[in-house]
Amino acid sequence: MCGRFAAGHLTQSQMLAIMENFLYGEIRHGDPTVPATQGYHIRPSQQVNMIRYDDQGFELTTAAWQIADPRWSKKKVINSKIENVKWWHEYWDHGRRLIPALGYYEWHQDTEQPMFITVRRNTPVLFFAGFYLTKAGQHQCSILTRKPAHQIGKFHDRMPVILSPDEIQDWLTYTTKPEAAQKTLGVNWEGRFEFNDVKPLTKYSDGPEMIEPYEPPQATLEF
Prior knowledge:
By secondary structure, this protein is α+β, with helices and mostly antiparallel strands. The chain is about 15% helix and about 30% strand.
């Protein structure tokens, strides 16, 4: 978890309009060298939309979904455990960000059957918390994860940290401290998760039908 997610097809203007409902202050539109990947099957290393906060305020830009920190040799990381504060200490202080999404994919244990997981909400997208690194003028990012809510714990032992609207501002502006984040960040969705089986994912999979409920065909019985 989380190795695939759905982003949809929101334009930069639509994304800015959505973010204005959660953030106090102007949001500038960055000018990324690489545009964000659109669609319903976002994979590691692809470019994704990212919202960050720096000394100039809030910015909507893009980042490659993987962090290759020089201190880790050649290891590339797509997910960051919220419990590992010491490992990510510099990012807690200088590298927080959001990734907008529609939801994410998980697989039933011991099977190849995927499912789509999201939450009931009043906004067109949800927001994953995470970290970013700027290297050679390009952004890289990861998704923050934590132990799962009870409702979806049977599917995997980790889940992305999905921020509620009242957590977004404090997370991005470094107001939320690591100790408080480990206890409360992204834990307010219990009872509001929605999930359903979906068609098998291939490298060519895309389109809104990917997140629609799907019943695998029954195996033929021979007598």
